[in-house]
């Protein structure tokens, strides 16, 4: 997978869920997502966001995994 950018790829994907998760972390804030990356990955692999929202696609989960593997590019 080509280089994944937090600002261009991850934050726009998570932005629609930002308000729902503010009690736990800011999904559009680089440091928050980086520090919680393992938990975010586990949650999206486990079906987060919950119904009635559609789960993220396999491609979207793979993109987040790639972002971790690439060392969290901004
Ligand atoms: C640190 C990572 C995360 C944790 C621990 C977490 C945990 C939770 C919990 C406990 C809830 C409420 C209970 C439930 O309905 O399951 C919830 C709701 C929700 N989460 Fe997350 N979540 C995380 C990441 C994410 C991510 C990455 C997204 C988006 C892709 C997301 C989107 C949502 C949405 C849309 C809701 C529903 C809120 C509502 O409808 O009121 N969460 N989350």
Please explain how this structure is put together.
The protein is mainly alpha-helical and 74 residues long. The chain has one domain (6-69). The protein has five helices and no strands. It has helices at residues 6-14, 18-21, 30-35, 37-45, 58-69. It is globular. The model has no long low-confidence stretch (mean pLDDT 97).
Protein topology:
Elements: H1 6-14, H2 18-21, H3 30-35, H4 37-45, H5 58-69
Helix pairs in contact: 1-5, 4-5
Bound molecules: protoporphyrin IX containing FE.
Protoporphyrin IX containing FE binds at residues 14, 17, 20-21, 24-25, 27, 36, 39-40, 43-44, 48-50, 53, 56.
Shape: globular
- Portion of residues in beta strands equals under 5%
Helix content: 40-55%
Low-confidence stretches: none
| SSE class | mainly alpha
- Helix count? 5
Radius of gyration: 11 Å
H/E series: HHHHH
Main sheet characteristics: none
Distance between the termini: 16 Å
Could you say which small molecules are bound to this protein? protoporphyrin IX containing FE
> How many individual domains?
1
Q: What do the pLDDT scores average to?
A: 97
Total strand count, please?
0
Keywords:
0% strand, single chain, 5 helices, binds protoporphyrin IX containing FE, 54% helix, mainly alpha, 74 residues
Short account of what is shown:
This protein is an all-alpha fold and 74 residues long.
